[in-house]
Amino acid sequence: MYILHGKEPYYIDLVSNFMIDNVLDETEKAFNQVVIYGKDTPAAVLVDQCKRYPMMGEYQLVVLREAQDLELKKEEDQQLLISYVRNPSPTTILVMGFKYKAPATKFFNAAEKEEKNVVIFKSNPKSDNELPVWISEQVKEKGYVINSKAINMLVEFLGNNLEKIENELGKLYINLPKESQITEDEIENNIGISKDYNVFELQRSISYRNVFKANQIVSYFAANPKENSIFKVLPILFGYFNKILLLHSLVKKTPEALRSIGIRDFSFAEYSQALRNYSPEKVHMIISWIREANTRSLGLENYSVNEGELMKELIYKILH
User: Fold this and answer.
1) In the structure, how many helices (H) and strands (E) does the chain have?
2) How far, in Å, CA of 16 to CA of 62, rounded?
3) What is the pLDDT of residues 253-283, one digit of tens each?
4) Which residues contact 173 (CB under 8 A, 6 or more apart)?
């Protein structure tokens, strides 16, 4: 038995798909491979399937996807699985993928004790500071290289969603020859993330109080409201200034302390500059202005100003 669980679904799918692709050959798969889903499979049906003998092969493979949806509220259902864990079929390979939610406690405790028959893998999310190295390694495995700005663009826009990052990198692999260098231009041309006019460049311009650049970006947003909605921009700015406020409250502003409040290594210089440019009092005012802009963007206390004008007004207040 393989029990895969954790908050990062990427590795749960990766291992499950590897088993599906590699455990049985194509002839054996037709008779001995079953892929089922937790919400559609009662515990009794799962156990019954696992106890069946393989046809014209040594093993059968049973993959239970979305195992967190398996109904185990009844004591008898948990006991069925616990009994199977303690005495599994020697001809069945069972793969259970629990995404986000942990397996039922009694079942999981029983599985942990069966080290000879059970492999347990916990899939943890990558931290913000692990992502650049992870992206670089993924790209290298595919026969490409990627520069640091391109990595930062992916991290800033896609966060630590590994599946999204892999999917977007897949677009680059299709369009670029092997051994190419992936740059910010390739990210812009193939993925659609503007390297110059995006909310993170706006954030950076605000940090350094680059009034000209910030106004350029906001004007671009106003001219392209569908791609740069105020409802996407305001939450990011709100989170950004909340981090600056937290940064002001830290006694020691060490790299470890910055990481503890979610600031990535490559952003240390930017946040340090923002700390010098914006006092705690100013940051409090900025956060209140962001809230006000959000209220007005919803049509409250605002009768005529559009999203673009609201953004320009907000950025003017922040910078002056």
Assistant:
1) 16, 7
2) 10
3) 888 888 888 787 778 889 899 999 999 999 9
4) 142, 144
The answer to whether 305 and 296 are in contact (CB under 8 A) is yes
Same domain for 141 and 208: no
Average pLDDT, the chain: 90
Domain boundary among 80, 101, 122: 122
Statement to judge: residues 212 and 301 lie in one domain: yes
Residue span of the structural domain in which 271 resides:
199-319
What is the token pair recorded at 203? 């954030």
Identify the residue with better confidence: 262 or 7: 7
Buried b (16+ CB within 10 A) or exposed e, 89-113: beebbbbbbbbeeebbeebbebbee
The answer to whether residues 6 and 75 belong to one domain is yes
Report how far residue 311's alpha carbon sits from residue 101's, in angstroms, rounded to the nearest whole number. Answer: 39
State the amino acid at position 69 in one-letter form.
D
One-letter amino acid at 98 equals F
Q: What is the Cα–Cα distance from 150 to 168, expressed in whole angstroms?
A: 12
